[in-house]
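[User] Once you have settled down, look closely at the record that follows, and write a paragraph about the fold.
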Amino acid sequence: MSLFSLEGKVALITGSTKGIGKAIAERMAEQGASVVISSRNQDACDEVAAAITARGHKAMGIACNINHKDQLHQLVDKTKAALGKIDVLVCNAALNPFFGKSQDIPDEAFDKIMHANIGSVHRLCQLVIPGIAESGGGAVVIISSIGGLKGTDALGAYAISKAADMQIARNLAVEWGPKNVRVNCIAPGLVRTDFAKALWENPDIYAATVKNYPLRRIGEPDEIAGAAVFLASQAGSFTTGQTLVIDGGGTIAS
């Protein structure tokens, strides 16, 4: 069996109807996982799941707004009811309603970012990891950002939340490692997604970014998906508590 096989595994992926989350779901399904597609819109979830199943893989859609604890409970409960277990959790859903200096961010926006980007990861891990441990082990992959590694004058609260995601991974890796649960982060650089459109569609920001990337381009969602498969599979079985930076070399060159 391939080191990257996810045959027989159940993977729950939040924010997976587009962008990085969708790419991860598609690639994990190709490796044999039964994937649960989740975002706020059920129709969007069903559409992505149907496209995956049409290619001969296993997928289902369950809508969930990560801002609501009761919906997180329902997401986990429905997944287990339909598929029996969860082996892999990918926390990808996040938000950033404010672009600008920290001095100017409204309290409401700051609180919303912290609640969604940190709180939902914490709560989902609380809900899912005990079951992963009980079934013999598995993996959690948190999609962070290089924003959590560098200072910024425009994405302050978002960067704080992404740095916190890295610490969540370290804490939970220590806490759950003895039960064979691995927890890691991926920190992408600028990737061509709708979420980051305000950055890569701005010609000045794009030019300034790729100038500092040794590869002289931004990333594509599929270039993050392979790392998620690695971290979820046997190939990553001795990797835990880490943040894997995938940024075209941006952090080492700027």
